[in-house]
Description:
Blueprint: E1 7-13, H1 14-20, E2 31-36, E3 40-46, E4 51-57, H2 68-97, H3 100-103, H4 108-134, H5 137-142, E5 151-158, H6 160-182, H7 199-204
Antiparallel strand pairs: 1-2, 1-5, 2-3, 3-4
Amino acid sequence: VGTQLWVRGTTLCTTGALLVNATGPELHKFIGEIHYGLYSGQRVRQCGLGGRPFQFSFFPDLLKIIPASIHVSVILFCTVLIIFALVGAGFFMFNAFGSPYETLHGPVGLYLWSFIACSCGCLIMILFSSEVKIHHLSEKIANFKEGTFTFKTHSEQFANSFWTILVCSLVHFLNALLIRFAGFEFPFSKSKDSGRITGAVDLMY
């Protein structure tokens, strides 16, 4: 959550490229780099005279130009995701080292934690994607405190932290499915009384 590996991209200095009518290989002299996360980032301003790095932080520098409500919502849902993922992990440890066969027949809490965590992960991806793509977050950052030159997004892709949230959401979804299958009584399985459970069955679960 705290890394700068959420979005990577390049920006084109359109003003400088138009002044010299740059095309082909010359256009690369006007392409800078940008990468950022939820809290901070870095952009390399390049307008034909070499790259100039510039560090920035979202709070409070960019609050006037970014959709602050969406950005804060993403951070809030990240916090909820972390909390409920830890809660789900705690209940998993309880089931693993407690009485798993009995506990798996009443996993309402595990469904709840997994559902909340998976939902928060999906909301994070939707909100952050809309912030980047619909609200053109990279262009707003690239043109921050720029009075002469205008930058446009040349290329843009999500980085490791964004895809980590996707993986976490999928894991919580699969976790809910596994919990369901663990307590499912198949038609060909033999029903046993809970008082006659042996140690081998407990070890299997």
